[in-house]
Amino acid sequence: MKLGRINHVGVATPSIDQSIAAYRDLMGATVIGVPFDLPAQGVRVCFVDTPNTQIELIEPLGADSPIVKFLEKNPQGGQHHVCFEVPDIDAARAWFDDKGARILGPTRTGAHGTPIFFLHPKDMGGVLTEIMESPGDEH
Ligand SMILES: CC[C@@H](C(=O)O)C(=O)SCCNC(=O)CCNC(=O)[C@H](O)C(C)(C)COP(=O)(O)OP(=O)(O)OC[C@H]1O[C@@H](n2cnc3c(N)ncnc32)[C@H](O)[C@@H]1OP(=O)(O)O
Ligand SMILES: [Co+2]
């Protein structure tokens, strides 16, 4: 498997609007997307661009959201996951499977429109890790 660049850092928040204000007014971010709902993933999302990566703000969408428990433990929100790009999602999945890493659920379509899956934080030193096929044809 070829590990690629960090695509984004996922940050869970109880209020995407408040987080947008903080990234804009405190951090000086100038390129901030428009929030949108991703019902299939149970989150509302907004991307904040930085020169070398993105912050992915995620707010729970519904009681079944996968970030509800995280926010119960971290009511202010916090760093939730790190996402690495790979050239070929199926090859990456086979690689992690072969290594015995716990893959959380099926491969699905992520916020960038490419396939993603997650690795259990307990198999990655406590970091919930998202693996995402690179946008564009980089196979
Ligand atoms: C925007 C769409 C998409 C994209 O395109 O980028 C996304 O990023 S969606 C992001 C949200 N989706 C997900 O997180 C899906 C994968 N997550 C899961 O399957 C679960 O959330 C989980 C990671 C298995 C956690 O399960 P959960 O039921 O929520 O909590 P538990 O209390 O059972 O957690 C077990 C264990 O793991 C620790 N934990 C939980 N979340 C994290 C985290 N984000 N980072 C590090 N550690 C985490 C939790 O503390 C528990 O540990 P112990 O207390 O020691 O047992
Ligand atoms: Co993500």
UniProtKB/TrEMBL annotation:
Keywords per UniProt: Metal-binding
Gene3D superfamilies reported for this sequence: 2,3-Dihydroxybiphenyl 1,2-Dioxygenase, domain 1 (3.10.180.10)
Pfam family, one: Glyoxalase_4
Family matches, as SUPFAM superfamilies: Glyoxalase/Bleomycin resistance protein/Dihydroxybiphenyl dioxygenase
Superkingdom of source: Bacteria
Record GO terms (molecular function): metal ion binding; methylmalonyl-CoA epimerase activity
Keyword Metal-binding: yes
InterPro entries in the record: Glyas_Bleomycin-R_OHBP_Dase, MeMalonyl-CoA_epimerase, MMCE/EMCE_epimerase, VOC_core
Family: Belongs to the methylmalonyl-CoA epimerase family.
Official protein name in the record: Methylmalonyl-CoA epimerase
